[in-house]
Amino acid sequence: MEDITEALGGQRVSPSTVSELNQKIDATIEAWRQRPIEGEHPYVYLAGLWLKRSWGGEVRNVAVLVAVGVGADGYREILGVAEGTKEDQQSWRSFLRYLKGRGLKGVKLVISDKGLGLLEALAEFYPEAQWQRCMVPWYRNVFTVTPRGRRKEVAAMRKAIHGQEDREAARQKAEAVAQKLESMKLAQAAAMVRAGVRDAFLHGVSA
What we know:
46% of the residues lie in helices and 22% in strands. The chain is of the alpha/beta class.
């Protein structure tokens, strides 16, 4: 921090000034985290990010839970960010309680990865909402069993699934893609497509 202030302002600041600045920043961030959530947010994206954090002289992995909502006006807004000990059911339950306590309402659809304990916690706080698996983690999972030289081709095939006009057509396309992958000697990728296609479309969180 001292090096940064010297580079920006031409002079170094004392450790006490740095501490005071940090306290002000922390207070501002906490005020933002606890602000009331106004209006309804029909669509909510939930994600858990694993980051590195320095704690007591050690660098540890920490889960950061993030909620992004789409309001009635169609604009996205970061609704909340919280540190979780790990991305488990208890962490998600605490995070959803925090969001609901601040006024998150009108949730009709939640989009997320199929994280450990997330669906159970979601059913507890927003049982009327539908859930859909985020396509990005699903695609990434398929990539893990796809040779690098075939990924572009496979990505185009998977995107065609979501490009269909309705759910039944998408399911039929998913099966066609799985069969095509099998013909390409990519049996593991085909199995992942079949296993994940149900979660890629809407269903209740209690399902």
